[in-house]
Design brief:
Blueprint lengths: L9 H6 L34 E3 L2 E3 L9 E4 L18 H9 L4 E6 L1 H5 L4 H4 L15 H14 L3 E6 L30 H14 L6 E5 L24 H15 L4 E4 L37 E3 L23 H8 L8 E2 L15 H16 L5 E3 L21 H10 L10
Parallel strand pairs: 3-4, 3-10, 4-5, 5-6, 6-7, 7-8, 8-9
Antiparallel strand pairs: 1-2
Helix pairs in contact: 6-7, 9-10
Length: 422
């Protein structure tokens, strides 16, 4: 997401994502998170995606362009989910009807293990979300996954943090001072993370549009890609090896899936250009000389990149802005276009209605022009609803469609969206 984050709740992350569905075809709901018994159905072959020459293609070799959006709720724990008038089946219908075909959906361990009904965790608008009453966060996630699949929306599940309370820099919690961030008040290990990734990989294996898992959202801070920084020598902090282990486990659990791997925010190894201003999750420079050992047809590099509304990089104040941006993007992730599947997992901003004014408009337009010049269209925009303070949404604060944002996305996606005329 962003440099600075708000807190988010289990109920909001899992609960708001339920869109009026009472049945869960293709989901192994008999599997309990603590002691799962998996009986996944076999998904339709035509929905299985893979990489081919830098493109995502289906089983027939047809190119699939992801017109994606992030579904996100970043509120303090247990803030009422109807704070933006709920989230109903009409939202999924609207996305599909207006040309979106993919959603990136966050979850955290609490989503899997908290057994308190969501209507006891948060205020639930029972008129808009009657199906949530009495259901656990995991059962609500089941509902949303089924409904998204029935609408033909591809889903990437995003392991967003080890904690529902805030974004955490690593995929494990080994510092006892931070155990309170974890759902059970204990250490959360790399093995726990892999267990939870494989759990969701198996649980939703029967849904044809469940296309991938984003292994961890924005590893940053002390995290390094691999060895090379004399100041960080603990292999537990090396993202490359962790992503390889987790990705291999996910593919063993569900061979249909794509594995989305994000970048870091600097390896400081003397080989990359660590002086380039970068967002969390944006830096893939070490991939050039320490490549991920994952199947090429299943690996998706998924950088996050943001403009001045979200994080004011020094490059945004340069005299040659925005012409200077392309060289930075080339180094951070653009060098892999055509060699790997590259899908930007997050990008966005308030687009003229934020603190940087037109500067953010210039940035977003520059990114779209850069992607088009490189024949890249797949991405997940941040985000759908307006309750992301530093970026806003496709819906404004009054839940009206931002026509200007829709037009920008329509340009990127090749006139595939239905832009409301207003």
């Amino acid at each position: 997401m962003k440099r600075f984050r708000l807190l988010f709740s289990t109920a909001v992350i899992a609960g708001l994502l339920a869109w009026g569905c009472s049945r869960s075809p293709g989901i192994d709901t008999a599997a309990a998170a603590e002691a799962p018994v998996y009986k996944p159905a076999v998904a339709s072959a035509h929905q299985q995606l893979r990489r081919s020459q830098g493109w995502l293609v289906d089983a027939q070799g047809r190119v699939v362009i992801l017109h994606g959006v992030n579904a996100v709720w970043k509120q303090a724990p247990y803030v009422a989910p109807d704070s933006v008038d709920g989230f109903t089946a009409a939202d999924a219908d609207w996305l599909a009807a207006h040309g979106f075909n993919a959603v990136r959906l966050p979850f955290v361990p609490d989503t899997l293990y908290n057994t308190t009904p969501v209507d006891q965790l948060s205020a639930v608008n029972t008129q808009l979300n009657a199906d949530l009453v009495g259901k656990t966060p995991l059962q609500v996630l089941d509902l949303w996954m089924s409904y998204a699949d029935s609408q033909g929306l591809y889903v990437v599940l995003d392991f967003h943090s080890v904690s529902m309370q805030r974004q955490y820099p690593t995929w494990f919690v080994g510092n006892a001072a931070d155990y309170g961030l974890v759902y059970n008040g204990q250490a959360y290990t790399e093995a726990d993370w892999i267990r939870d990734l494989t759990f969701v990989a198996r649980r939703y294996a029967g849904l044809p549009h469940f296309m991938g898992i984003d292994l961890y959202n924005e590893p940053e801070g002390v995290v390094r890609w691999s060895s090379g920084d004399a100041n960080v020598t603990d292999p537990a902090l090396y993202w490359k090896s962790a992503a390889e282990q987790a990705g291999s486990a996910v593919l063993q659990a569900n061979p249909r899936l794509l594995v989305f791997v994000e970048g870091i925010n600097g390896n400081f190894d003397g080989r990359e250009n660590s002086a380039i201003p970068m967002n969390w999750g944006e830096d893939f420079q070490p991939q050039a000389y320490q490549p991920l050992d994952l199947p090429a047809n299943k690996l998706v590099l998924s950088p996050h990149t943001y403009g001045p509304d979200v994080y004011e990089k020094s490059s945004f104040s340069a005299s040659n802005y925005p012409a200077n941006l392309a060289a930075n993007w080339d180094a951070l992730f653009g060098q892999y276009f055509g060699k790997h599947a590259v899908v930007i997992g997050e990008w966005g901003g308030r687009y003229g209605q934020g603190p940087s004014g037109q500067k953010d408009v210039v940035w977003q337009q520059a990114l779209v022009s850069y992607l088009l010049a490189n024949h890249v269209r797949d991405s997940f925009y941040w985000c759908y609803t307006p309750n992301s303070a530093d970026s806003g949404g496709i819906l404004d604060d009054n839940l009206q469609v931002r026509k200007d944002k829709m037009e920008l996305l329509d340009k990127l996606w090749g006139n595939k969206l239905i832009v409301p005329q207003q």
